[in-house]
């Protein structure tokens, strides 16, 4: 599936007219028909219980957790799940997740873990890079391209993003100046001896 196909699906008049129960039933069928037989297990972590529970209900996640690692420790279920994790992803964020969350995740890992993070250009990822390095991960960033995210809600948010990107040494021309957040892709891998 492409992101364009997902946008088309979820902005269609038919989809917009459905109740949450109808949408969940349709999504469950929709994703089951597209699930690969060799799919790896995917666990979701978000403090938004409705978000992860919906993804779990429709078959996008194999397990879901709402532990707030910015405020506390991983609970028993998440701690057990993390022993199986080999890849941690962050998609289009970084503004509300700090090194504390990544440290908590990596403390429970029992195998080499990679981190693939798409981080908004409005925030510095360097504190997280340092935390990952403390756990034996080397980080690279692909500065050659950005990844568009959501549109700004208003001009105030647009101006905030432009100012924040410039403060971090970035150029908002053709990106944030055009009305949407953009991310950079950071990849962290275990150091090799």
Automatic annotation (TrEMBL):
Q: What protein name applies here?
A: Uncharacterized protein
Q: Which organism is it from?
A: Streptomyces roseochromogenus subsp. oscitans DS 12.976
